[in-house]
Amino acid sequence: MPFSQNYKVTDRNLALELVRVTEAAAISSAAWTGRGKKNDADGAAVQAMRTAFDTVAIEGTVVIGEGEMDEAPMLYIGEKVGAGGPAMDIAVDPLEGTNLCAKDMPNAMTMVALAEKGNFLHAPDIYMQKLVVGPNLPDDLIDLDAPIEQTLKDLAKAKGRDVSELTMCALDRERHEELIARAREAGARVMLLTDGDVAAAIAACIDDSSVDIYAGSGGAPEGVLAAAAVRCVGGQMQGRLLFEDDSQVERARSMAPDKDPTRKLGLHDMARGDVLFSATGVTSGTLLRGVRYTGPSRARTHSIVMRSKSGTVRFIEGRHDFSTKTWAGR
Fold first, then answer.
1. Binding site feature residues for substrate
2. Which residues are part of a known binding site for Mn(2+)?
3. CATH topology (fold) of 3-118+275-324
4. Is 281 within 8 Å of 290 (Cβ atoms)?
């Protein structure tokens, strides 16, 4: 049966199954919050997420994951997951913000996106230049090649506000010093993050967020996950892969032989078709509350689940007895 037909039957339950996957990773990694051991936190998230996928009614292939087969024991690119069902591509970040979790800082979260097979950009583990604004704005408002001053001016006009009332979010990196300085010179506020640019991209698309625009460069795999989320809420996003040497260019070309690897990427170049996205907070941040332990065997989680076809955004609070869950540990 074609994916589009079968999906109409399974999508509502599938959304809840996705939440269980991100909840599993969040609860397991949260046990390492503030312990200074980012690799242990990441390993716990990977293990729990991989185990939870065994119950999801899909025939999934990881296209954005923990690395190549020889680099990661599970959730590696090309790994097959799921209990059987419609063929789908999977993009995962079992723990975005491993340092944030290790240091008990805001915005660590776990995330998964699903799309029909072939509908996610196969992005190598390099940097991507990104620009994101929210929904209900004029089409083609943003242009990655436009000066940030012009982008802020156009965004302010579209929102009926002054540039001084806008907040741009960016990662606090040396490579962004000029971008940050120019945005401030134009009059905008700038919110700086140490890690976690997917959360920032989503925040730029949420009505009650303080973020109006996300700009700068971060990981390309995270760019695909951000694109999936932005698709679900009707925002706008552009991206471009940033290469350091010819070997990276050839790697990107091998993933999409018929495409120019240096091209400017539109939102649908990164995430096409009907997309589902789920994320669960590990530490509290701008988008989600973190895992909160309420007893020796209980925890509460806060998740967001979105679907591009309906545009529905759900915030879900889960209450768990993880002593009965095989994927959870403290």
1. 96-98, 127, 173-175, 195-197, 219
2. 42, 66, 93, 96, 222
3. Fructose-1,6-Bisphosphatase; Chain A, domain 1 (3.30.540)
4. yes
